[in-house]
Amino acid sequence: MVQCPSCARLSEPRLVCPQCGGPLPAEIDSFAALGLTRKLVIAPAALERAYHDLSRRIHPDRFASSPPKVRDASLRATALLTRSYRILSDPVSRGNYWLELNGEKLNQNNNRVPPDLAELVFEIQEQLAEFRAARGGDASETGDIADAIAGRRRELAAAIEQAIGDLNRNFERWDARGEHDDLAPLISELKALLSRIAYLRTLIRDVDRELDSVKAA
Amino acid sequence: MAYSTKVLDHYNHPRNVGSFAKDEENIGTGVVGAPECGDVMKLQLKITDQGVIEDARFKTFGCGSAIASSSYVTELVKGKRIDEALAIRNTSIVQELNLPPVKIHCSVLAEDAIKAAISDWKKRKGMAPAEEKKSAEG
Asked: Do B32 and A110 make contact, defined as CB atoms within 8 angstroms?
């Protein structure tokens, strides 16, 4: 239970006091902060609505002349709400957050790289090394490598999009699981997908750095 | 961040970089990575039928410490029997290279790469990869 700094009444932990509508200094997870059940699928419109509605009700501007305890609750609740919204609005960070809520971490016992992904990493990194070595040399050759790398960038972007699509489809399947189903296989699948996305994102970041450094030169 | 002299030495002059030819026999390959930072490390070991590591190659994409850890490991395992190589702990890599706490995961990756490469070799030789399970849980 949490005590409301405005009306002093107790309520279940949440961001808005159900009795007086004032902000509550509750320590709750991001799903609870937005008043959502702990489901992986979240309708973007519902999330937006909950976020805007709550942020209006607990906004620090509304409590500028309230007692310090209430002002403090409003600031803390707003910070938690904003952070929660940011985490939940992106499926990848939502998936990672869900893992954490279930006592797991992406890097935990998870260092084998699937062969196809490893091959892609090595191919692209070697192309980037080739590109760095060729720069300052023959302009047309450098241009060819740059074109190849730009093509790789499109490939990577498509692969990431596909992986995020897979993630969303899996979210639906996972939400539909039975209450007593074993979580372990679900968690390992989720980790595999999120790891793939993390590796692809690192690659695309490295590609962008190279392409940007050419533009800057 | 300031790298130690040994890290810089391995980083600037990495030992045993590359891959063995695809048709070469007696090779075990281990690919490990850290999803959160995107580092990927490939370690290949050439192992005799008597279980002695003859030669090693690596390819690593990641920070200086990850490259230095894998380069150092290729030197360390050469001439060792596989049971000796499997006994190598990341702490000895940390000590040798003087890795700071934030880079300890690089040494863990190098230790796991040895285990992954040896278990791949065992699988190719039709031996049960007994170490695989232990290291995955550890």
From this structure: no
What's the gap in Å between the CA of B123 and the closest CA on chain A? 16
Q: What are A120-131's pLDDT values in tens digits? A: 999 998 899 888
- pLDDT category at B134 given cuts 50, 70, 90 is very low
Closest CA to B132 of B14, B32, B3: B32
- The residues, any chain, with a CB within 8 Å of residue A115's CB and separated by 6 or more, are B31
CA atoms within 13 A on the CB side of B44: 16
Q: What is the pLDDT of residues A16-37, one digit of tens each?
A: 999 999 999 999 999 999 999 9
How far apart (Å, rounded) are the C-alpha atoms in residues B38 and B48? 33
Q: How far is CA A123 from CA A128, A130, A196, B35, in A?
A: 9, 11, 16, 18
Residue A107 has pLDDT above 90, yes or no: no
Which residue has tokens 């040494």?
Answer: B107
Instruction: Provide the 10 A C-beta neighbour count for residue B20.
Output: 16
Nearest alpha carbon to residue B67 among B39, B28, B95: B39
Report percent pLDDT > 70 for chain A.
99
Query: CATH code for B5-137?
Result: 3.90.1010.10
Interface of chain A against chain B, CB under 8 Å?
106-107, 109-113, 115, 118, 121-122, 125, 194-195, 198-199, 201-203, 205
A78 CA to chain B: closest CA distance, Å?
Answer: 28
Catalytic site residue from B106, B109, B110, B113: B106
Instruction: Look at A11-20, A172-181, A193-202, B77-86 and tell me which has the smallest mean pLDDT.
Output: A172-181
Closest residue to A118, CB basis, from B31, B38, B136: B31
Contact B61 A195 (CB under 8 A): no
Token pair belonging to B111: 């230790």
Please list every residue in chain A whose beta carbon sits closer than 8 Å to the beta carbon of residue B108: 111
pLDDT at B138 over 90: no
E-strand spans in chain A? 2-3, 10-11
- Which residues have CB under 8 Å from A55's CB, separation 6+? A78, A81, A82
